[in-house]
Design goal:
Radius of gyration: 32 Å
Strand content: 5-15%
Largest sheet: 3 strands, antiparallel
Number of helices: 14
């Protein structure tokens, strides 16, 4: 429970809490309180600091004053002086957190005292320990109500400081299927006798492209990820697909993508038009007379591996 303060000090604190993140200079506090009496101001500030309603913060080599909420102030009244000092350093570390060795160096306290204070603060849920992907062996502390920064957690791709490859692979697969179904919609549907199988293998226009916002909306609306993904996260996954030649980025429109036909064939979808017996004869003939493509290697090379068979490019045998 916090100590009561005078009415004048309470007025100053209330006005400072109007901008709780602001760091006030002495002149700014005089203006806030509308007083020219420096002695009175310093007495009020000292009263607030004694009651843990105001703290000193160094900014650019100069001392500034910052208001502390009633809830936060009540925490300090329940702490010992050592705990309050350690808590202040942890608080100053923000979302990056602070290493226990750094706490010991800054406070100049014995390791046993630091450990005891950290345990007490953690039991009261004022602070928590976190893992850092940059420094996995270090024990790092931050305020209980804060979320670690991406630099600490590694972003959505890490779970318990370990790279979650299964999560990444599943998202990449979902994104590719979504984009491919928009680029080549006919390739993902049962073959129809009245469909020109050759034309079905190519997008009819740029309408087959998908924007990064559409991909993001698709993932969000279908609850595919239980971790919040921002646009840069989606872009990183798309870059993986581009590297694997499964997506291509449109140069004419930023952050717009289309699936490659080779990736559709590789997944086994586009082959249905050539293998289905119900395709109309005239369209079958078009397929038979179609020029060969390096993306259709599956027609020549058996998908089942043979240890006694080797394949060479024609130029290598000349």
């Amino acid at each position: 429970m916090t100590m009561p303060v005078s009415e004048r000090a309470q007025t100053l604190h209330d006005r400072m809490m109007g901008s709780p993140d602001k760091l006030y200079s002495q002149e700014a506090l005089q203006e806030l309180l509308q007083t020219s009496d420096l002695t009175e101001l310093l007495e009020l500030v000292q009263e607030l600091m004694t009651s843990k309603y105001v703290k000193l913060v160094k900014e650019g080599g100069e001392l500034r004053f910052q208001a502390i909420s009633v809830v936060e102030a009540s925490k300090f009244t329940s702490m010992s002086d050592d705990e309050a000092m350690i808590y202040s350093y942890i608080e100053a570390s923000g979302r990056e957190g602070i290493w226990t060795k750094t706490i010991k160096a800054k406070t100049n306290l014995h390791q046993h005292i630091v450990a005891r204070c950290l345990k007490s603060l953690e039991n009261q849920r004022y602070i928590k320990s976190i893992k850092s992907v940059k420094h996995p062996t270090r024990k790092i502390y931050m305020l209980y109500n804060l979320q670690p920064s991406i630099e600490v957690t590694g972003g959505p791709w890490f779970t318990d400081s370990e790279l979650d490859t299964e999560f990444i692979d599943s998202l990449v697969s979902v994104i590719w299927r979504f984009v491919a179904s928009k680029t080549y919609p006919a390739a993902f549907q049962p073959p129809s006798p009245n469909v020109n199988a050759v034309q079905a293998m190519f997008p009819t226009s740029n309408m087959g492209s998908v924007t990064i916002n559409e991909i993001s909306d698709f993932i969000s609306s279908n609850n595919i990820s239980n971790v919040e993904l921002v646009i840069n996260d989606i872009r990183a996954l798309n870059e993986l697909l581009i590297y694997d030649d499964k997506l291509e980025a449109l140069t004419s429109v930023p952050d717009t993508y289309r699936a490659t036909w080779s990736s559709v064939l590789e997944a086994g979808f586009g082959r249905a038009y050539e293998e289905d017996p119900n395709i109309a004869p005239e369209f079958k003939k078009l397929l038979q007379n179609k020029s060969s493509s390096i993306f259709e290697h599956y027609k020549t090379i058996d998908t089942e591996p043979h240890t006694e068979v080797a394949y060479f490019d024609a130029w290598a045998l000349n």
